[in-house]
Amino acid sequence: MSSNLLVPLPMGQDVIEQATGTYQLSPWIYPPGEFWPIDQVNYVALPAIGANAAVVSFQVPPGHNGIILAYANNFVGGGWTEGSGAVTWQITRDQAAVDGYDAIVASLGSPASPFRHPSGFRIFENQVIQLVVFNVSVVVAGQLSGGRLAGWYYPKMYEDQNITTM
Amino acid sequence: MEKTFKRGDSVTVHLTAEHEIEGDLKKHAAKFIRRLPGQDWAEVELQEEHAGGTKTLHVPLDAIEAQ
Q1: Which residue of B lies nearest to A84 if distances are taken between CA atoms?
Q2: Looking at residue A9, what DSSP letter applies?
Q3: Prediction ipTM score
Q4: Domain that holds residue A33
Q5: With contact defined as beta carbons under 8 Å apart, do A56 and B18 qualify?
Q6: Do residues A163 and A24 touch, judged by C-beta distance below 8 A?
Q7: How many domains does chain A divide into?
Q8: Is A96 in CB contact (< 8 Å) with chain B?
Q9: Per DSSP, which regions of B8-55 are E strands?
Q10: Is residue A124 part of a domain?
Q11: Per-residue pLDDT of chain A in tens (166 residues, 90 and over written 9)
Q12: CB distance A78–B18 less than 8 Å?
């Protein structure tokens, strides 16, 4: 079991007590009681060729960090095939691509059935999180792009104080 | 009758100047690349580059005719 060595907090969150000390359960793996669910779902019209559009966009609230564990992006309509690169997606934190999600050329799942990542990716206080669709070369004819990001926020007081924001 | 083209065929694509399918349609010279699997759409290479920086477009078959 993964755990972080932290200063014990007074409100009695989940901890493991061992002979070597008290260990707090990582809040991005085990949500504390004050967790706050994230589930952002949206569809947008396919933007013009050469343009992009935010499918899902939200800001991490003050005093909280979080984890995105499930995500989806899809394409509805004609003119695109998996892997063609004619439409790509990007998941960003403050407009910087999350590692591995810079130019997604596949549908990673429909919003009705998002992909559940084994570890997910972390998000931090005040960051703007976006799923963006970029139309490289598909003539617009009423197509849609959908997306979904799901996970949870937790109060920053549970955070490892040595964490470096990504 | 279903339109059939071969890779490299010279075709005319009917799109607006902004390469949309509705509006003031103009003729755009292009080469046929391939039909998208299972769709009434095709990939074509325009003679002139699109404003978005691409020459390759995915367009409905309805918008393509042989030259």
Answers
A1: B36
A2: P
A3: 0.89
A4: 27-158
A5: no
A6: no
A7: 1
A8: no
A9: 10-15, 26-35, 41-46
A10: yes
A11: 444 555 445 454 566 677 777 667 788 998 888 899 999 999 999 999 999 999 999 999 999 999 999 999 999 999 999 999 999 999 999 999 999 999 999 999 999 999 999 999 999 999 999 999 999 999 999 999 999 999 999 999 888 777 666 6
A12: no
